[in-house]
Amino acid sequence: MSKGTKDIKKNEKNQSKKEANKVNDNLYNHSSKDYLFNMSLAPGIKESTHWFQMLVAAFFTAVIIMITRMHTYQRPMEQFFWSGGDNNLTDFFSYYKMVAILVCAILALVLLLYRVFTQSFYIKRSFAYIPMIVYSILVLLSYILSDYNLFALWGWNDRFEGTLTLLSYMVLLFFIINSVNSEKNVKWIIYPLAVTSTLLGLLGITQALDHDFFRTAIGKKLITPSWFWDQVDNLNFTFQNREIYQTVYNINYVSFYLTLLIPLFGLLFIRSLMLGKEEPVWKKVLWAALFTLQVFNLIGSASSGGLMGMAVVVIAAIIVLNKKILNWWKPVAMLLILTVIVAGLSYERWVPELTGAINSVLGRQVVQDTKEEGISQEIEEVTSSGITESADERHTIDYMVTSGDAIEISFNGNEIIFTTYPEDPTALKVNDSSGERLSIVPTNISPIYKVDDERFNRITVRPAQDDSGNNYIVIGTDGNEWPFQLTEEGPKYFTGLGKLMDLRRVPSIGWENNLEFGSGRGYIWSRTIPMLKETLILGHGADTFCIYFPHDDYVGKYNSGTFSNEINIVVDKPHNMYFGAIIGTGGISMLALLALWGIYIIQSYLIYKKERYHSFVSYVGAGIFLGICGFLVSGLVNDSTVSVMPMFYGLLGTGIAINMMLNKRNASVE
Question: Which portions of the chain have biased composition (kind: Basic and acidic residues) (predicted)?
Fold first, then answer.
């Protein structure tokens, strides 16, 4: 390189430093237009919030996710026909996180009151307040009008994301927006987040290596009360060996929250490397190690939702950062190399998940290894000769309905009607949809009968009686049995929990030929979408989805593929945080959140597309922006939960505050 070129480079660098210094000097001069409201002793808007007040924001954003502790509680579950009736429940991953969220909200309110009493209270001008207020009002109204106030207030079992929790999110979001004023404040969010992310990542490694810390004696005692220690050897989580679940209850939620962190730590590594000798080598190594650790845990969680979110992060980064990526080619290349190395070392974890996701989207049916799952691949069919044959696949039951004294079944598009008589289960009349009488003939296996019609040759029927003398008709379809007790009110389906139910046609929309989409999400969403019309304005109450889901849709679960062998399973969440919000707090509340998130994304796009990236906060702001983009897309297949939403709202509040800082700086420069 010639001497003239070196001088030009040096002058450019000096000019950039001067501009950066000017930016820092003008980063929030006190002006009333910066405030929506401010009291007489309100600090200048460039002044850092005291570190003591930042502790609440740091704890909410970075620490709550780590809380894991056993809690026993009671809920009135006997009122639900689909519940086992056990009112005594145990939680490890959600209750104390919820408690911590409420405590943080209370402390934030106390600090805001302190500002009022010391005449230092202020409210920055922000687009966020109107959607936040609208959302909070809808959350409250949905609770007030809910038929299940207890659940709506505290949240559903093992989830605890009720009205109080949702309102706490808004309190903390407001507090963080009005507390993060400087680079120092930003670091009070980011550095604790880096520490806790490291600890969680290391915990994930122990789980991936089949040496889960929570399966050790000390790990079990750490998360249980002392009165339980004599039983601690019996404590075993249901997670399969080598699944990375960290402290967030569900392996899907690991990849969900990591979409927030990976772009953030990646950009901080890029900044560190671009600073050259101004940044110590150990910092470069730490950011690279932290990025790699998070990538490993994302892949190790084996959740395609997180991979989808990261794909969006990459696309958004290319669009927003554009030519800057070329200027950062060295650190970007290093991040890609680290990602490829991790992906190569753990290919056996992500390849099956990604392949399964692709097959699921394309509607391809994949036969599972039944030796591991314990599910028989063979479906037995009773023939007229009494010989059992292997069936290649289950046939579809279009519907199964109890009506009066009849059981109506549509099987592969053909309807058959069983008319029953409670006093004699063998006195059975069978007709097709046209009214033609069908015969049932005995098989070699007594007392099983078969319908003598080619359209229904996979349907069997047998009489039965319980110890109390109640008569039953047991209808068989592809090896699955459907017991109906014959009562004076007509036949009632006898559930796996011993309850008598009328069967109905459950409304569904979409995924008719691919109910297995997304590990059963196709089935869940197809039953959730018809529910949305009831909550377009107000919801049923926060976190009450489980109560309103059609758990009596036994036929739908039978057809789903995913739940075919567990038709009594309870679907307690929609696996889509947008659907969950609409059901819980209403369509208008969801629109308010979309406005909040959407305006932030548009504002961030306009800022970071032009940003020159001279400061720590600009890199952090861009990382938060990209992470939130990925998170919101991952939310299409994941649920809002107390494990991940504190981090989301903490970073969102920080991101909004950073955007204010950068907008003020840009205005000062211009």
Answer: 1-22
